[in-house]
Amino acid sequence: MHDDFVANLRLLCGYYPSIAEVCRRLEMNRAQFNRYLNGRYRPRHAAMQRICAFFGVEEHELGLPHEDFRRLVQTGKGPVVAAGFGWPDELLQRGRHGMARYLGRYFEYYHSMSRPGHLIRTLVCLEERGNGIVYQRTERMQTPASPRPCHNRYMGVAVKLADRLFLTDYETLNGHEVTQTILFPSFQSQVTRLSGLKLGVADNSERMPCCVRVLYERLDEQVGVRQALMQCGLIALDAPGLDAELLEAVRNDMVPGEVHFRARH
Fold this sequence. Notes:
Layout: H1 2-13, H2 19-26, H3 30-37, H4 45-55, H5 59-62, H6 66-74, H7 89-95, E1 104-111, E2 118-129, E3 132-141, E4 150-161, E5 164-171, E6 178-183, E7 193-201, E8 209-218, H8 225-230, E9 233-236, H9 244-249
Antiparallel strand pairs: 1-2, 1-8, 2-3, 2-9, 3-4, 4-5, 5-6, 6-7, 7-8
């Protein structure tokens, strides 16, 4: 089983330009990661969770016999190459055109579907993998009743079609939710903010289908994943640092005469 884990981890690393690139994105020491690749050590719980979250796999999948794991990856039936949930390759290839400038990390803002009166800030990481553009969206939820943060992780695929960005993802822990986000592209020289609409369900017992305006804010490359995650969670509407432009972009209102809930450019 240990040999299978090593072979499976090496296979996943093969989707990236180098081991150094994997370690940089994982924010993990290269020497430490090499010990896992060489089979000298098995990752402890915290390190294992980071590795699984980064590659989009479950821990038990990394322990599968290597040929089973390879088939899982290559057929696209596992979370690693869910790079399209079975979407046609032609669509993925067309949809990745022009997406290079959007790769990176973003804070996502929208009015919480389960906690009215609050915004929620999540972390979205878009990257190129295999034959398409995939992303991970991570929620960090903390309430007075549950002071210890819990995380929800979503894996998805992003395509750019006819001047719109389409992002579709699924919740990986329980498999109880699929969300879709449609964003306007940026025509500025530097991508800073993207706006659009998000469709999902409230994360509570009501599970009410909701549509909200959403804003993506590009993060500086120097901001690490852990540092960004610490800033995620529920935010009061009057919290410092929320500028008027951001609040206006995510305000869920309709003007007289509108018969559809529309995105705000």
